[in-house]
Specification:
mainly alpha; single chain
């Protein structure tokens, strides 16, 4: 391998920024294989038991009266402000009407946080990126060793 070809190969590997890579998040069940990542795509798989394949997601099971299991239509009705006035109401009417806006925001954020799934996709994506960068570093070191050996 000539020095120019090795330098071009090293430059091409260095230009592949992790932000340019497509990320695909999959849930696989039982012993199903996770597809291999490609140079253009990072595939991150979360594995669940085979019994979970055709079930309703865990965060949607349980008590129908739980606000996390409430439909979007019911949530939209809840957001209507008809008749809510005065202190602590988050309305422009009455003294201190805006004092309830922050409390309402906090309440909705807590309910939303409780309703999300248990899979930490951000951590899994970061681990896949670090693995990919490790492979790129190994390939770059191999190219550098080859260049040094030619001299």
């Amino acid at each position: 391998m000539s020095f120019i070809a090795a330098a071009l190969l090293f430059a091409a590997a260095a230009q592949a920024a992790p932000d340019d890579v497509k990320i695909n998040q999959l849930i696989v069940y039982g012993n199903d294989a996770c597809p291999q990542s490609t140079p253009d795509e990072i595939i991150v798989c979360a594995r669940l038991d085979e019994e979970e394949r055709f079930r309703i997601p865990n965060q949607l099971r349980g008590n129908p009266a739980d606000p996390r299991n409430d439909s979007w239509a019911n949530r939209a009705i809840e957001l209507s402000y008809v008749g809510r006035e005065g202190i602590g109401s988050c309305s422009p009417v009455g003294p201190g009407g805006a004092s309830g806006c922050y409390a309402d925001l906090v309440r909705r954020a807590r309910a939303e946080r409780q309703g999300r799934d248990e899979i930490n996709w951000n951590r899994m994506i970061e681990e896949a990126r670090q693995e990919r960068l490790g492979r790129i570093d190994e390939e770059a070191e191999a190219v550098e060793r080859a260049i040094r050996d030619e001299r």
